[in-house]
Structure formats: structure tokens, C-alpha cells
Amino acid sequence: MAIPPGIELLLKDILPNALKLPFIVFLFLKFLQQSPSEINLPTWAWIAALVSVHPVKWIVSTLYKTRRVKREAAARGAMLVPRVKGGSFETIRKIRGGYMAEGFFEWSKQYGQTFIFRVLGVDRILTMEPEHIKAILATQFEDFHKGEMQEDQFNSLLGSGVFNSDGEMWKFHRSMTRPFFSKVRISDYDVFERHAEETLSVLAERLAQGYPVDFQDAVARFTLDSATQFLFGKAVDSTSAGLPYPPSSSSSHPTSSSDTYLTHPSTKFVTAFAQGQLAITLRNVRGKYWRLFEFWKDEAAGYRKDVEDFVNPILDEAMTNLRRKEEGDMESENMKEVGEEETFLEHLVKVTEDKKVVMDELLNILLAARDTTASLLTFSVYVLTQRPDIFARLKSEISEKIGFARRPTYEDTRDMKYLRAFLNETLRLYPAVPVDGRSPKHATTLPNKNGKPWYVPADTRCVYSVFLMHRREDLWGPDALEFDPDRFLDERLHKYLTPNPFIFLPFNAGPRICLGQQFAYNESSYFLIKLLQKFDDFSLALDVQPSQPPSEWKPEPGTTKGRDKVTLFSHLTMSVKDGLWIRMNNINETLEQGQK
């Protein structure tokens, strides 16, 4: 029987550390009492000594660490990063409350683009400076890693997969994954066609009933089906569950959905994966003491079990098929090379017989293939509900390059410059991963264009926000907060992005750059073209949208707070809180009604 997380932390960390020093002080006082000088302290002095030992230790260690850090920084000719004033609970409130990354944005106005803040006794550096992010991800890649703390926080959901591993384990997973994102594989649009058609059909059916649709749920199922087709060789057909009906206006969070939707295995998988991501994201805020907040039960492990229940039959089938091939004497020296028709799953079970390693990698890649592209498509359509001018230009480009009858090809999407600019602008203002981080392996520095480098103490996690960096007016111009795809086509491209490419990092950078970025562009381009070939007149269904920004949020300089009509939400990836509910018109139905 597994030890509850809170008990484990108490036994292995908190109690030993809490009792060790008072016990040493007790022995010392006992020694003084029994020494020849017979120093007898009154009871109150014993109590005071034992009670004050930890506060005194904290004061002494804090002063020592402060002096040590100053001394080490000076030895490197570096400066200390500005420190945010305020307690842990105020810091947590600012991080978790308000608009996306609002707390970080407010601090940046006071402390600059890089600062250090403390949560529950743990220091973290936050930066939105492209030179720092470049150093962390690329030029000083060997100085940084995911780190033991993140691995511990994420392990019960993601295991040791490519996104939660370092060193040789990361290289092992990366080498397994890379061949499956070759140009030949990701430009095969047959993978997208069937699932796009199924998703559009489900959307059309629900709209024909007179209901708005949760577009975010629909594209999450489209990307899940496409990803499992691409990775497993067969889709899990989550779209067959149908779509949720709009929430009732009579209460805050109900969902009146069909029995098929509620009981479909993919619905449980999608819900568990989302809740698991939320659980490990909260651990990231709570730091090394996250087990105290999940005292009796590892919440992410429970969600992992639900996810495994969904994936296990597919994995077992792949392993059974491999054994049959081996029994048929089909194994050769090239058994661990990638075959042309081989799926990612088939390759994994050839490379390793460790079922947990295979499961870890599958879930890591599924997370990337499903959630990031679903985020891009969701926010793309959100923008189209707000910008009919951009909608019209996209329709015009589709009409010119493809028309409205045939399916797009890889060559079509490659030539559609405005569509790519539109996707880039969506990724700029609404990046799928708004905040990420790395930990230094040892004390190091980050470059400072205005003088001495910034000192980074060992074990101080460096958090970077591309969400905030992508919105900086000094990096993108005075119109940085305006959604304008032309900035990726006109003179602004050469003025801002070309000379400083690290100001735009929707897919990370350096050795750990996202292998699937072209897959995401291709999948998103294909689906949006098909969507605009079939539907028109996009609008938000605010009458059924469960969560909307508070009415007291007013537009403020330097942020889009008060402008967005939906509430941004993030665990590992960014989404619209409680779904994106929209209305659209089916072009074919509109034409048929007009002909009548």
C-alpha cells in the first residue's frame, strides 16, 4: 500500500528537519546541566531555547545566504536580480488571480522585465527578456535543465517522458520521436481529412438543431483523433461521442449533454488529462511542499490511471502484434530502425519492452499533439468571431488559392501567406504555452544589455513568459496589443522580428524546440480552410458562455485585460475557460434556403 503523499513528506523531510535541530539543542543544554559547572537553566529558558531555535536558524541562514549570494555575484562581476517585495500568500494571489499573467505584468512595471519573487520560501526568477530566454533555451542550454523539482511535481502524470526528463533519458526519448515528424509524414493530409470531415459534420448537425457549439471541445476531439491516427495508426474516434449541449442558464456550471457524450470513453480520458494537468500546474505554484496540499491522495496519479485505462488497450494490441511478428521470424538487424509505414507506437514497442516507458512517451506526445494545436485553433476562431475584416481576407485567400469545393493540399497551405501570418499572430497574442521554466544546474549568469550580467544562484528556477514577451511594445512596436497578421508580412517583420527572432517563441527554441511545430501549422491550416469552406458568420454565443471576464475589468495600457470577451485559462497549455461557445452559419444550408 502506497504511503499518502503528505505522510511521506512529513516522515522523510519535514519532521526530521523540524526535530533534528531542537534535539541537538536539547542535548547541548543537557550536557551543560550535567557538566562540572552544573549550569541549571530555568524551565522557561529551556522552552525559549527549543522554541526559538528554528526562527533563529532562519534568520541566520537568510543573512548568510544573502551575503553569500552578494559575494558570489561580485566575484562573477554580476548584479543581483531585483526582488519583489511581499509575502507568499500575496504572491500566490497575484499569480493565480486576475487576468492571464497579470501579477507578473504589474511587477514588471515596477521591477523591470526580470525580477525574483518568493513563494513558500522558494525563490524564482521571472523573465520576459528575449536575451535571457535565448540563453536559457539555446546559448547556455547546458547550464539549465527541467530539474528534479519539476520532475517530482510532474512525474505522477507524465512520468519520465520527453517533456519531463533531462540528460540521457531526454536524449533517448527525443531520438525516438524525431523520425516521426519528417516532412513526408507531416505533409500527408489524409490523416487530417477524415477527422476534419467528421468534426465539421458534428458541428453542422448541432448548429442545425439551433444550438451554439463548444468549438474548443470539438477541436480538442479533432486533434485527439488526428494525433492518435498519426501516432497509433488508428484513431480513438472521440468525435463519435458528439458535442456537449450549451450550459443551462439556471445554474453556474451544468452541462446538459447526451448519454453518449457523457459515457464515451474519450470523454473520461479528455477530462482526466485536463484535470491531471491542472493538478500538476498547482504543484508548480506550491513548490516542493505540494504533497501537503494533496495530503492523503496523489491527485495526478488518479487521473493518470483514468488516462492509462483509455490508452492501455491500444498499447496492449501493439505489443501483441509485435510478439506475433517476432514469432514469425520477422525480426532482423534493422528491427529498431523506423519503417516507412510504421507508426510511432509500433516503433516504441520495438525499441523498448518497458511498458511504462512507452506509456510515458505516448502521453507526453499526445499532450503536445492534442492540446497545443487545439489551443491554436480555439483562439484562431475566437479572433474570427471578433474580426470580420480578417475573416473576409482569409476567405478571399481560400477562394483564390483553392476554391470552396476541393480539399487543400500541402502545396496549397504552403503558399497561403496570409493564413500563415494569421496563425502566427494568433500564436503571438495567445501562445499555447504562455509560461514555462528551467532550473540552473549550478550558479550562473544571464546577459544584461544595459551593463553587468544578472546573477542566478544555484537551484533558483527561472520562469519565462512568452505570453508577456509577445505583447511588449518595445519589442513589437506601439501596436503590439492589436491583432494584425500583416505584421508578419509588411515592413514590421524586418524592423522587429528579423533582427531579433527570439522575440517570437510559440514553439520554444534551442535543442528542445518543439518537433511538431510544422505538424501543428499543417493541421491548423488544413482544418481552418475546411472550416471556412463550410461555414460563415462566426459569432460568440455570450448568452450561454459560462465564464466571462468580470465587468469591472477595464482596458489598461500595456495589456488586453478588459478587451477579451472570454476568460483565458492555463494549466500546461492555454485555453478558454469553460469552452468557446459560438454560432456559425452553414454555407450550403444558407444557399439552399436562398434558392427556395
UniProtKB/TrEMBL annotation:
Domain of life (superkingdom): Eukaryota
PROSITE patterns: CYTOCHROME_P450 (PS00086)
Cofactor: heme
InterPro entries, per the entry: Cyt_P450 (IPR001128), Cyt_P450_CS (IPR017972), Cyt_P450_E_CYP52_fungi (IPR047146), Cyt_P450_E_grp-I (IPR002401), Cyt_P450_sf (IPR036396)
Keywords in alphabetical order: Heme, Iron, Metal-binding, Monooxygenase, Oxidoreductase
Gene Ontology MF annotations: heme binding; iron ion binding; monooxygenase activity; oxidoreductase activity, acting on paired donors, with incorporation or reduction of molecular oxygen
Keyword Heme among UniProt keywords: yes
Positions with a binding annotation for heme: C514
Keyword Oxidoreductase tagged: yes
Gene3D superfamilies xrefs: Cytochrome P450 (1.10.630.10)
Family: Belongs to the cytochrome P450 family.
Record protein name field: Cytochrome P450 monooxygenase pc-3
Species assigned in the record: Dendrothele bispora (strain CBS 962.96)
